[in-house]
Amino acid sequence: MTLLIATAALAGTGVADYFPLKEGTKWHYHETGSGSPQVVVDEALPAVQIGGKPSVPVETRMDGRSIEKRYYRIDGDTVYLVAYDAEQPLSLPIPILKLGDGRTTWTYAGKTMFLGGAVPLEFKAQAVPKGKRDVLGSDRECVEVTMEARIDGGGGMAVVSRQVSLFAAGVGLVEMKQRQTVAKNTSESTTKLVRIEAGT
After folding, report:
1. Among the listed ranges 56-60, 85-89, 96-100, which one has the minimum average pLDDT value?
2. Distance of CA 93 to the CA centre of its chain
3. CA dist 162 → 6, 24, 74, 122 (Å)
4. Is 149 within a domain?
5. Could you tell me the residue range of the domain that residue 84 belongs to?
6. 20: Cβ contacts below 8 Å, ≥ 6 apart
7. pTM of the entire structure?
8. Is pLDDT of 61 > 60?
9. CATH number of the domain to which 70 belongs
10. Which of 44, 89, 100, 197 could make an SS bond with 26 (beta carbons 3.0 to 4.6 A apart)?
């Protein structure tokens, strides 16, 4: 699942509340798009050291098979994506979640992994508080995030995407709608949280 995700938290709520990383937590998502609907599971694994600092891997599985791992670290009011491979951290961590009061905006210009290599990534994002929403039967404070991103895949190939995501305090990602264009081909997908299992 694509997770070039950025957001902000409401005043008085810690940024970690919107991106919980407790070991053993599992998020079950239902994804729909151009292909057949599918269920993917994200699980927070034990923290590891990357660059001398603890980072939490989140593994994505489909039909019991590992698809990818992403490593996250919280520093102050920001959650950073620091690596896709613990042995090859990103040269400039990607700020995917920020804490702010009210509407919050930010940008990024660095690199991400694409087709097995590091390629340029640029994005701009804004997060807007949405108040309380019903999330799996419980009222929780939420923020909506809009991200506009561009990946330069090389050889004249660019990937342009727009993501609109909803995050809930104490839960994390609740829903993400994505439109992605590669050359002249555009695809759309929706990811929805259907179940969460608390970590131990």
Report:
1. 96-100
2. 13
3. 12, 30, 24, 12
4. yes
5. 15-197
6. 44, 170, 171, 172
7. 0.85
8. yes
9. 2.40.360
10. 197
7 domain residue, yes or no: no
Segment 108-120 mean pLDDT:
83
Do the Cβ atoms of 16 and 187 come closer than 8 Å?
no
Count of structural domains, the chain: 1
Q: What angle do CA 172, 29, 54 make, to 5 degrees?
A: 45
pLDDT at res. 200: 67
Determine, yes or no, domain membership for 9: no
The answer to whether the CB of 189 falls within 8 A of the CB of 31 is yes
Q: What is the pLDDT of residue 32?
A: 92
pLDDT, tens digit (0-9, with 9 covering 90-100), for 125-159: 988 889 999 999 999 999 888 999 999 877 778 89
Average pLDDT over residues 100-114: 86
Q: Is residue 138 part of a domain?
A: yes
